[in-house]
From TrEMBL:
Region (Disordered): 980-1016
DUF7708 domain segment(s): 82-218
PANTHER family according to UniProt: AMELOGENIN (PTHR10039), NACHT DOMAIN-CONTAINING PROTEIN (PTHR10039:SF14)
Polar residues compositional bias, start-end: 983-995
Protein name: NACHT domain-containing protein
InterPro entries linked: DUF7708, GPIID_WHD, NPHP3-like_N, P-loop_NTPase
């Protein structure tokens, strides 16, 4: 039996019906009577299925009867909602209320008896069916909510109430229909039942609404509970996640071996001789320091080689073994500065390591640390690189500890000692301002003056190493090995407590062939008493080696001491072999591993720890004093033997040795041929290649140049081996080709590429030695430097970010003349040809590019340097890279529209001796006709509210080339670069020609606002239309909220020009009358104009002029990238519209493609080329890895809704445009040749040097003598129609690969070769003045 309160309530209701119902009614006889036969062993679900089948059978029989009576309505369809609703409702009752099976009999049976009785009332039977449909829908609607929230008591209550309402209605309906049907049905007869139904329906609706409300409330409560549970779990997980994120931030990409000092401590403690350093733990100063219950600082000083690092390690381990009153071990944070480790000699590495040790895995992260982390992230800094921030992090972590011991060894070995001391001083001041736990500071270093003065100012107690204590430790070491007490005492006396001296001299003593104690003592008396003498004595042992081995040792010492970064054993072996200036690599010339190790002795150690391969260890000097010793002047040293002098080299000698062996290595014959760089760098036979390529110029910059060295460098750069060097540099040290932006503070920011801004002096990496600039040795070197800088400027984005594609970077004519460009190093399908200067003619732009069969002709515009006359020259696109690119005179009439200077456009006919053209100046928005000398400015009815500041820029141009020159029509879209104004008036005025200058500007009125503030108004736009025989027409409009390119096009047969200056509209200009009309433009359905940052709305007429193809490009600026969307629509052009129809109506579905890449938007937004079948598009970045896409144009006869996977295609291989492309009026074309062959052509005008006010104010024309940086050029890519195009793959093509890789740009540019903890250095040159240099050091 059901036992829930709601099941009992439902059972009580059913019992009351059985008791109260009139036994003579059909409802009692046909429904209630059946309750007595229900088996209590059945479940509600079983009884529900049985009752549902009975009702369904009855409905089916009733439906058959109605068919015989010629009734057409299908009962089963109309009553299906009722049966389904009751079934779902009872399922809820079974699960939630646990009702008895009688509930099913009553509700199903009630429906059946009502149908049975109502069939006699044909006039209202249909109404009853509608009522039952409503009941079914109501039950179905809220049963979904009830089953979703079975634990809700309120919903269970409503289930019971709904049951009562339905059964009560069945009862009342049965009473109504249990009467003799009237002969004539009057609507008023049904009115009582209708009132009953309205009451019941309202109750059902109320129940349904209440169920929904309760469900929402229950859901909200459940969601709250779930959110609380998830929040608790998330907090736990996020705490762990945040902890990991902050740890990674603190690490700053540093090598973990440099940050983790545990193994250093273990290694030092293991090397410790028994009972040494015990004196320190018992010294009064150290015991007072450690045992006092207040913050204290102790500085331990000792000479070089006296065991400071070992003592610091022992102290750290000792403190960790101690426990506080609660039984917890004391915490320590230890760091060892090391001149021999590129990372550990940086101040910020010390603070990173200390911070990581202070932040345990279970420690709560201080709010201050979170705040500093989030602030760095908000400024796109994923690594802790600012020392000031690192100091605050360590300070916050110290404050969170009740007691902490901080041990820092080797203050004197830090590369930037002043920064480190200043940092600790700042940290002391931070801690002195707020309360915190006990901090025990311990520093160790040599007792140098600057360190002493700084630490004394911080009230740090100095403990100078007692001489006797150090000697006792030495005595403990040597006593077991000399077995002569007198000799031991003499040795200890001579050692002066220096362990470095002891470690070098003890093996020598043990190796002497003495016959008695007196001889041994005599030999000890001869030992040098200083470290320098000790080192010299060690070197003197090499004098017993062969002359060749002595020379080899000298080279090893010089290379190891002077190397920019530590070298591996294999690198040293290859470098030594290269010193022989071999023609090519020969393995037999490599010195043996055992020989190298033997010659290193105890002055050069082989470091097999850390990330180095143990079989290929790093070679490092044993101690900082060893490096100082080798760099010292041997004449000032007390050497035991003058022959030892041969092992000393000056800094210049060492750098020359490394520079020459690097140059010799790079010039090996094998590197004169193209190589697989990745595979090559992984092979041991190229061990020294990365180092030589990365630093060769650095070493040569430190030597005195000679003619011989100059000639060798020039010969190298003019060989194929130089390009192998460039490939290696791009792979392992891409920062050498980085872009460096000068900041206000005098520093530089490194980036892969960026938009060119004339006001900013950008520097570029220039990894060439300075000796090339010396004209004393010749002029070739300077030309090389200039040409190579131009190459880097043009292709830096490929060099530093796409090293596999350097073969697609082509040089201009000037560079080829000075730098070797072998065919094997170039991609066979990529070519570039420039239009060089010929005599007095200066080529400035490319006019028309046409195809006649398989011949492609190129028209280049030039002007004479002596006057303003222009000349047109013709050339032919070479069929092979070996062919020349001659400029041939052309005397035929040519219609031309192209740039003739940096800011001037020419349109008209230009040929030898016959000029008739218009000259348009973008800066002043002025026009000059060179047939009549009429000078026209902006019209008088162009009335901005305030004077227009800044310049105008040309965004697009078009010429109606279907007409003759005598009927020239051309249009130019200009935009204002900046305009400051509060513009509350219309900016859609237009006019012809120009009036006086006085009318062009009006005063601002008071109606413009009274708040006294000035807003930055959006720039204006102008469509300038030039028509032969008339003054130009200026059409102005106000800019939208996004940047816009709106090129104009001309109708092929009618005097119409059209452009789209705003979303959803198109401007149609009658070029005969000058009238402009605006008509609606159907935009693509997915166009999102409110969110975009830039747009290009380009139109194209079909040959017949009855279809307009509409290219809509939009750019949306995302956080770190730009999303580019291109849509192609086909619109029927019906102008003027007939019978009230639209001028433009869509004929086919729009084709849309989306592409996301890095950077920002810049003009031009894309390049497009239209053919009869395809629209070819070059998507950003137009200054590097350009995305080439083509969209198929809808054709007549194709289904309007049809679409094919091949309608959008892209090229298989990457296409790279030069960096200057956006600034050289770029255009693309695709030419088809015989078969499936194609040529993609990129036309680039001359690039002009920035020049302040190059404008002639008297004429408005651009002075022709403005400097040209690069001549006009054509780049071509050979394509195969069948092989090089593939369908667009959304998964692969919608995002640039570098975005998908989520590369950290700085880490990427840093490269893989320069030590992660080391500052990398790079020579740079100004992009504005190639002779302006700087040498940057980057962290």
């Amino acid at each position: 039996m059901a036992s829930s309160p709601f099941a009992i309530a439902l059972g009580t209701y059913i019992s009351s019906i059985k008791r109260d119902e009139d036994k003579e009614t059909p409802f009692y006889k046909e429904v209630i009577k059946q309750l007595d036969g229900v088996s209590q062993s059945k479940s509600l679900a079983e009884q529900s299925r049985q009752s549902s089948e009975q009702l369904a059978n009855f409905i089916e029989g009733l439906e058959q009867k109605q068919k015989r009576s010629s009734r057409t309505r299908r009962l089963s369809d109309r009553l299906r909602p009722l049966v389904a609703g009751i079934n779902q409702y009872l399922t809820s009752c079974d699960v939630i209320v646990q009702a008895a099976p009688e509930a099913a009999v009553l509700i199903y049976g009630g429906a059946r008896i009502v149908l049975m009785l109502a069939q006699g009332f044909s006039s209202c039977f249909d109404t009853m069916l509608s009522i039952m449909e409503d009941i079914g829908h109501s039950l179905k609607r809220y049963s979904l909510y009830s089953t979703a929230y079975p634990a809700s008591n309120d919903i269970q209550y409503l289930l019971v109430e709904t049951y009562k309402n339905i059964v009560n209605f069945w009862q009342e309906a049965a009473v109504f229909f249990n009467r003799k049907p009237p002969r004539i049905f009057v609507s008023s007869i049904f009115k009582p039942l209708d009132q009953k139904w309205q009451t019941c329906r309202q109750a059902l609706q109320n129940d349904s609404r209440r169920v929904k409300e309760l469900a929402l409330a229950t859901e909200a409560d459940m969601r709250r509970q779930k959110e609380e549970e998830e929040a608790a779990l998330k907090q736990s997980k996020s705490g762990t996640k945040l902890h990991k994120e902050i740890v990674n931030w603190i690490k700053g990409g540093e090598d973990e071996n440099a940050l983790d000092t545990r193994y250093d401590i273990e290694d030092q403690v293991e090397k410790r001789y028994k009972n040494t350093c015990e004196w320190f733990l018992q010294h009064p100063d150290s015991t007072n320091w450690l045992q006092s219950n207040k913050t204290a600082a102790l500085w331990y000083t000792a000479g070089p080689g006296c065991g400071k690092t070992t003592l610091s390690s022992i102290l750290s381990q000792h403190i960790q073994s101690l426990r506080d009153k609660q039984g917890n071990h004391y915490r320590t944070a230890t760091f060892f500065c090391s001149f021999n480790d590129p990372a550990r000699k940086k101040a910020i590495t010390a603070f990173r390591s200390l911070a990581l040790q202070l932040l345990g895995p279970k420690d709560r992260i201080p709010d201050k640390v979170k705040e500093l982390y989030e602030d760095d992230l908000s400024h796109h800094r994923s690594n802790l690189t600012d020392l000031r921030v690192a100091i605050e992090v360590v300070g916050a972590l110290i404050k969170s500890q009740p007691r902490i011991h901080i041990i820092v060894d080797g203050l004197d070995e830090c590369q930037s000692r002043d920064k480190l001391l200043d940092a600790f001083g700042r940290l002391f001041r931070i801690l002195s301002t707020q309360s915190h736990g006990i901090v025990k500071w311990f520093f160790a270093s040599r007792g140098e003056y600057d360190i002493r003065s700084r630490l004394r100012s911080l009230k740090v107690t100095e403990l100078e190493a007692p001489q006797e204590s150090l000697k006792n430790d030495v005595r403990s070491v040597v006593t077991p090995q000399l077995h002569c007490s007198h000799c031991v005492e003499q040795f200890v006396k001579d050692s002066e407590g220096n362990f470095m001296w002891t470690s070098i001299m003890l093996p020598i003593v043990k190796g002497e062939t003495t016959t008695c104690r007196e001889e041994l003592n005599e030999e000890i008396m001869k030992f040098p008493k200083s470290l320098a003498g000790c080192y010299a004595r060690s070197l003197s042992q090499l004098l017993d080696q062969s002359e060749s081995h002595q020379n080899l040792a000298r080279k090893i010492f010089a290379i190891v001491v002077a190397a920019v970064q530590p070298l591996r054993l294999s690198e040293v072996r290859h470098a030594v072999a290269a010193c022989k200036e071999l023609v090519d690599f020969t393995p037999s010339w490599l010195p043996g591993v055992n020989v190298v190790e033997k010659l290193c002795g105890n002055l050069i150690v082989l470091d097999r720890c850390g990330k180095c391969n143990k079989d290929d260890p790093y070679l490092k000097v044993a101690h900082k004093s060893v490096q100082d010793f080798f760099m010292a002047d041997p004449g000032e040293l007390d050497l035991p033997d003058d022959r030892v002098r041969k092992f000393f080299v000056s800094s210049q000698e060492a750098n020359e040795m490394l520079g020459r062996c690097s140059l010799s290595y790079l010039r090996y014959l094998r590197y004169n041929q193209p190589q697989d760089t990745v595979a090559m760098l992984e092979k041991s036979e190229h061990a020294f290649l990365s180092h030589a390529a990365t630093f060769w110029y650095r070493y040569l910059d430190e030597v005195t140049p000679t003619q011989e060295l100059y000639d060798n460098v020039v010969a190298f750069i003019q060989s194929g081996a130089f390009w192998n060097c460039v490939w290696v540099q791009a792979r392992v040290a891409p920062h050498l080709f980085g872009r460096y932006i000068g900041g206000l503070s005098g520093g530089f920011n490194l980036e892969a590429t960026g938009v060119k801004e004339e006001a900013i002096d950008v520097h570029y990496g220039s990894a060439l030695p300075k000796l090339l600039e010396s004209e004393h040795f010749g002029k070739t070197g300077a030309s090389i430097v200039h040409s190579f800088l131009g190459f880097v400027m043009e292709w830096h984005a490929v060099l530093n970010s796409h090293p596999d594609s350097i073969d697609r970077c082509v040089m201009d004519v000037g560079a080829v003349e000075t730098i070797y460009e072998a065919t094997g190093w170039k991609h066979p399908r990529v070519a570039c040809k420039s239009f060089a200067v010929e005599g007095p003619l200066l080529a400035v732009s490319i006019g028309n590019i046409r195809q006649d069969g398989d011949t492609v002709s190129v028209l280049a515009l030039g002007h004479k340097t002596s006057d303003l006359s222009f000349s047109l020259k013709q050339s032919f696109l070479p069929s092979s890279a070996a062919e020349g690119f001659p400029l041939l005179p052309n005397t035929s009439d040519e219609l031309l529209d192209t740039f003739c200077s940096a800011e001037s456009m020419i349109v008209g006919r230009v040929s030898d001796g016959n000029n008739n053209y218009w000259l348009l100046n973008a800066r002043r928005l002025s026009v000059q006709h060179f047939a009549s000398d009429d000078f026209l400015e902006a019209p008088s009815n162009f009335k901005p509210l305030k004077p227009v500041e800044g310049r105008w820029k040309l965004l697009s141009n078009a010429v109606n080339d279907s007409h003759s020159l005598d009927n020239l029509t051309a249009a130019f879209h200009y935009a204002q670069e900046q305009r400051s104004s509060k513009d509350n008036t219309s900016f859609m005025e237009s006019g012809y020609g120009s009036d006086s200058d006085n009318d062009s500007i009006t005063e601002q009125t008071e109606a413009d606002g009274d708040d006294g503030t000035e807003e930055q108004a959006a720039p204006g736009h102008c469509m300038l239309v030039v028509i032969s025989g008339r003054e130009p027409t200026f059409q102005f409009w106000k800019a939208a909220d996004f940047e816009l390119e709106a090129p104009c096009i001309f109708h092929p047969h009618s005097p119409l020009a059209i452009w789209s200056s705003a979303p959803h509209e198109i401007s149609i200009m009658n070029t005969t009358s000058g009238e402009v009309e605006t008509v609606p433009l159907p935009e693509p359905a997915d166009a999102q104009f409110p969110t975009i940052s830039a747009a290009r709305k380009e139109l194209r007429f079909s040959e017949a002029g009855d279809v307009v193809y509409y290219l809509l490009y939009t750019a949306t600026q995302l956080e770190y990238s730009v999303q580019h969307t291109v849509s192609l629509s086909a619109l029927e052009f019906n102008y003027p519209p007939q019978d009230g129809s639209c001028a433009l109506e869509r004929t086919h579905l729009a084709t849309t493609v989306t592409y996301e890449c890095g950077g920002t938007t810049q003009h031009p937004y894309l390049l497009a080329h239209w053919t009869k079948e395809w629209l070819y598009i070059a998507l950003p970045s137009l200054s590097c890895n350009t995305k080439i896409v083509r969209l198929r144009l809808p054709q007549d006869g194709e289904e309007a809704t049809s679409s094919s996977e091949t309608d959008i295609q892209t090229v298989r291989d990457p296409v790279f445009f030069p960096y200057s492309t956006p600034y050289r009026n770029p255009r693309i074309k695709v030419f088809n040749h015989n078969g499936d062959k194609q040529t993609l052509v990129l036309a680039l005008d001359a690039e002009f040097a920035p020049k302040i006010d190059a404008e002639d104010t008297s004429t408005g024309s651009q002075k022709p003598e403005q400097d040209i940086l690069k001549p006009p050029a054509l780049m071509t890519w050979k394509l195969d129609e069948g092989k090089d195009w593939r369908k667009w793959d959304t998964d692969v093509d919608e995002k640039d690969k570098q975005i998908m890789d989520h590369k950290n740009q700085y880490a990427m540019l840093r490269g893989t070769f320069v030590d992660a903890g080391k500052r990398f250095e790079v020579p740079v040159r100004s992009g504005l003045n190639w002779r302006k240099t700087a040498f940057l050091s980057c962290a």
